[in-house]
From TrEMBL, chains A, B:
The gene is pho2. It comes from Lachnellula arida. Keywords: Hydrolase, Magnesium, Metal-binding. InterPro entries: HAD-like_sf, HAD-SF_hydro_IIA, HAD_sf, PGP_euk. The active site is at residues 28, 30. Substrate binds at residue 228. GO terms for cellular component: cytoplasm. This is 4-nitrophenylphosphatase. Mg(2+) binds at residues 28, 30, 253. It comes from the Eukaryota. Its EC number is 3.1.3.41. Divalent metal ions. Mg(2+) is the most effective. It is an enzyme of class 3 (hydrolase).
Amino acid sequence: MAPQPKYLSGDQSAIDEFINKFDIFLFDCDGVLWSGDHLFPGTVETLELLRSKGKKIVFVTNNSTKSRADYQKKLSSMGIPSEIDEIFASAYSSAIYISRIMKLPAPKNKVYVIGEAGIETELRSEGVEFVGGTDPAFRRDITPEDYTKMADGSMLDENVGIVLAGLDFHINYLKLSIGYQYLARGAKFLATNTDSTLPSNHTFFPGAGSISIPLINMTGQHPIALGKPSQAMMDSIEGKFQFDRKAACMIGDRLDTDIRFGLEGKLGGTLAVLTGVSKKAEWEVEGAKVVPAYYVDKLSDLKG
Amino acid sequence: MAPQPKYLSGDQSAIDEFINKFDIFLFDCDGVLWSGDHLFPGTVETLELLRSKGKKIVFVTNNSTKSRADYQKKLSSMGIPSEIDEIFASAYSSAIYISRIMKLPAPKNKVYVIGEAGIETELRSEGVEFVGGTDPAFRRDITPEDYTKMADGSMLDENVGIVLAGLDFHINYLKLSIGYQYLARGAKFLATNTDSTLPSNHTFFPGAGSISIPLINMTGQHPIALGKPSQAMMDSIEGKFQFDRKAACMIGDRLDTDIRFGLEGKLGGTLAVLTGVSKKAEWEVEGAKVVPAYYVDKLSDLKG
């Protein structure tokens, strides 16, 4: 069996050692801080304790429909105080990646967006030009004229060099067709994240990964994903916060996204909390590939 | 190298032998009879020749948006006379499969349709009940209320036992969400066909397979496909026409769909025509897996 994680709940000296070891904590949110609309007791106090010890906190979410400002409102509505600079969502991650890492030469650096307003806000904040997104001109049925104008390119923007697909509650045949045309003409393919489902109301709805997958199916190309567990997101976070990875710890409830994200990013630590998706049994089996360094029953166990 | 196909063009005795060997010819259409809007010269005469020799002709198409009647109009508009009973499209294939092969016990045998009117027409012709499809109630944005009503099941039809996904020019987030809910509740998963793209105007648009793939991505389930090269379609054709497979020949332009369909169906023969997608070089390489039994440069070479 793989080396097993250290269990921290109820062990104050181990908790102190754990907290002292790191300067920055990356937090997954749903399943860690809250579940659905239910804030876990002690969440706010635990975050306060870490802040009082001078720790940097970053909320890392794959949610691609919200800008950082939107997400701060969500945290606020859950009763969690935060700074906008503590928030790292996949829409922002994508904008950062495009503007600071890809840096395509103008003018062929426009982005065709499949997604909601949060992506647009973050692209604007980085000065990235885009088409598509929430533009009503793209929220309609395809017409016979569209086929001709896509085929001859006359309805396409020749400066689009990137297709960015996120969660789009207004996905339609026209948007997918246009996305395909840009990719077929050589645009780079990015996805805010590739989660196949979106958990809500104790069931699942299509996630961002189920919006981009028709384009993968049509082109055979796979997008660079800017959400957990993709390391492109870790690179974006590091680019922004400039921290020592050895002094960073990822905290999350999902082994396949959060813990994997921290392990592959070679962070100093990973902490699993058992208030979400993954269960202890998943790392206690022979051949388990993703094993956190630490685990607690619930986040508030850290405040002792 | 695999045994190579017999080349018939210009070899009258080989052509006569070929035609005499079969009683029924299954025809792919686009790339064989016509390309786009252009009817190949000699198509009508070749079909007449076969009919005059008492051969049965079946037009086999993966087009899922058209009923047989719609497709007959298309053939007619291309100048090709046909009988409705000579037409086998994937919408009809799906209806036949549901009504004559699956035969789910009532009342849990309703179909949730993602697709266009052709599917509805064919389901009605087989007396199969359905919801979804072109119903305007499903052609709208998702609302906050929908999430609740999907989660508690109150907006779902409890008698839906099958999800059938075909090409849908009105695909949206609501339809995909509902499709997921039915599958998660145990409905059987069918697809009219799984072509990733739809060729049109010398480029590509999303095909039926790019409509069903978000559901595959969300559920991990793969649908039974009712179009070429799926043998479920061959079973449907055989169920309807009752022929000896050894006396049947599949004629098509695509190795990966048409010729494979005939080979896996163990038909007596397969004929590739070089007026469409696949080229001779594809079966002339070492390790070629799909090799037709015969080929011609163009269909009309059969009329000598």
